[in-house]
Every structure is written in C-alpha cells, then in structure tokens.
Design a protein that fits this description.
The longest helix has 15 residues. The protein is mainly α and about 100 residues long. The chain is elongated, with a radius of gyration of 15 Å. It has a domain of about 70 residues: Orthogonal Bundle (Arc Repressor Mutant, subunit A), CATH 1.10.10.10.
Length: about 100
C-alpha cells in the first residue's frame, strides 16, 4: 500500500500536477504512540496495556488521529502518518514475539 501512495506522489511530481502542499497535521505525543503501536498490529487492549492507559482512551486517541488525517481505518491512518513524516517506517517494524 505504501508503494502505491509513493508511486502516485512521484507521478504527480513528475507531471507537475502536484497540488499546493497543505499544512501537515501534527500529532500530540500520546496519539502518536498509539498510532505507532497500531502500525505494529497491536490491538487497542494491547496498546492500552503497553502505555498504561484505558482501552477507551486508546480508542479516543486513534479516533482523534483518524479525524486529523481524514483516515477511514487504522491502515490508512498509519500509512498517512508515515507519508506525512509523523511516523518513521523504522518505528513500524513488527513487534518482538512475547
């Protein structure tokens, strides 16, 4: 999926039809942490456990982040955040076996 977004962005740059850059959304620290862990395939309960939060709080943070990036699901959110430079791809590496 990331390759598709990158290809489309490169094609827009090459054809000169790139729209004017919009201001990039910025995460607050906790929603960013939740997005990184969601990108590692953690469930909301696992994210809550890892960050010492309530699952409902994690859901709120991810909902806020999806709204910020106009993403419809977790995958689109993580990809959009990575393309915007808010999350590094190296941070999204698979988690270690528990």
């Amino acid at each position: 999926m990331i390759g598709i977004f990158a290809f489309q962005a490169a094609r827009r740059l090459m054809t000169g039809s790139a729209p004017l850059p919009a201001p990039r959304p910025k995460f607050r620290p906790r929603p960013r942490d939740c997005v990184v862990l969601a990108g590692r395939s953690y469930s909301n309960k696992e994210i809550a456990r890892a960050l010492a939060l309530m699952p409902r709080t994690v859901d709120g943070y991810l909902t806020e982040a999806r709204r910020l990036f106009d993403a419809h699901d977790r995958t689109e959110l993580v990809v959009s955040a990575a393309l915007a430079g808010e999350v590094e791809l190296s941070e999204l590496r698979s988690r270690q076996p528990e």
